[in-house]
Amino acid sequence: MIPPLSALQAFETIARRKSFSLAAEELHLTPSAVSHQVAKLENLLGVRLFERSARGVELTPAGQQYLQRVASALGAINTATEDLRHGVQDTLYVHSSPSFASLWLMPRISSFTEKHPNISLMLSASHLHSDFQLGQMDIDIRYGLPNWPNLEVEPVFTEKIMPLASPEFIRTHGLHTPADLLSVPMIQSSVSVVQWAEWFSRFCADLRPGRMGLRFDRAMMGLDAAVQNLGVALESTCIAQSLIASGKLQPVFDEEMCVQVRAHFIVYPARHAARPEVRNFMDWLRKEAQP
């Protein structure tokens, strides 16, 4: 059951403008016509979408939940329409976790565009996973434990998770053994699949992690803090590759003291693999991820 597009547009516009009159002005309708569209939609859904008060118009909890899906769907329709109107073909929509996009993908993306100049690449990043049912994304590069049923899931690479710090920080604080870490701030990434407690239990079970100097929900923020001499980050050498190559960061210990994981995954519906743009991007990504 798909409601009339006019009713969905009225709903989204009112929610965005927080006003029936402003929505009517944007849609070139009368306020009563906009109100009629919303009433029709509420009757069809059997729920109330807005609460009207002296302070204005507010979404109900049901309205907020519905808006999240409807706004994305309308955005996908708008993007597809604009692409067709302007003659844009061979468009590829890729979504990624933020740190992977910023630190690993972006430094390499020019080689893809040079190799495939006919593909119009649309790249977005957030911690939220793509909803493929909305038809907005072709590929999602996700971070975490691979529990995504009914989708194709392929690891990008095997990563080495190690304590990383700036050469200056290592030298200043004399970091030579795991015990030395107990006297310096340790930077914690709350979303990391490997936490400091696990690293200590593997390599020096008799020690317990010291104080966490800073906590972040993004690997790139934790790595930046380490670059700024704020402590030692426990992060992936793959994601930090450019920072290590530039000399801004370096592993505190030898590779024997790393935890190997597969934590970044290429995720997509099986039907998407038939698109040449998807196959080209996947082939390119596999080659770039090779050791």
CATH topology of the largest domain: D-Maltodextrin-Binding Protein, domain 2
The CATH C-level name of the largest domain is: Alpha Beta
**Range of helix content:** 40-55%
CATH architecture of the largest domain: 3-Layer(aba) Sandwich
Strand content: 15-25%
Element pattern in H and E: HHHEEHEHHEEEEHEHEHEHEEEH
Could you give a short account of the major beta sheet? 6 strands, mixed
Note the quaternary state here: single chain
Radius of gyration: 24 Å
Structural class: alpha/beta
Shape estimate: elongated
Mean pLDDT over the residues: 90
Distance between the termini: 49 Å
Q: Total domains, how many?
A: 3
Topology:
Layout (H helix, E strand, L loop, with lengths): L4 H13 L2 H8 L3 H15 L4 E4 L2 E4 L1 H25 L5 E6 L1 H8 L3 H7 L4 E6 L13 E5 L8 E4 L3 E7 L1 H7 L12 E4 L6 H8 L8 E5 L2 H9 L4 E5 L4 H5 L4 E2 L7 E3 L2 E5 L7 H14 L2
Parallel strand pairs: 3-4, 3-5, 8-9, 8-10
Antiparallel strand pairs: 1-2, 5-13, 6-13, 7-10, 7-11, 7-12
Helix pairs in contact: 1-2, 1-3, 1-4, 2-3
Can you tell me about this structure?
This protein is α/β, with parallel strands linked by helices. The chain contains 11 helices and 13 strands. It has 3 domains: about 5-85, Winged helix-like DNA-binding domain superfamily/Winged helix DNA-binding domain (Arc Repressor Mutant, subunit A, Orthogonal Bundle), CATH 1.10.10; about 90-155 and about 265-290, Periplasmic binding protein-like II (D-Maltodextrin-Binding Protein, domain 2, 3-Layer(aba) Sandwich), CATH 3.40.190; about 160-260, D-Maltodextrin-Binding Protein, domain 2. It has helices at about 5-15, 20-25, 30-45, 60-85, 100-105, 110-115, 165-175, 195-205, 220-225, 240-245, 275-290; strands at about 50-55, 55-60, 90-95, 120-125, 140-145, 150-155, 160-165, 185-190, 210-215, 230-235, 250, 260, 265-270. The strands form 3 sheets. Strands 7, 8, 9, 10, 11 and 12 form a 6-stranded mixed sheet that branches. A 5-stranded mixed sheet has the order 4-3-5-13-6. Strands 1-2 form a two-stranded antiparallel sheet. A hairpin with a 2-residue loop joins strand 1 and strand 2. The protein is elongated and about 75 Å long. The model has no long low-confidence stretch (mean pLDDT about 90).
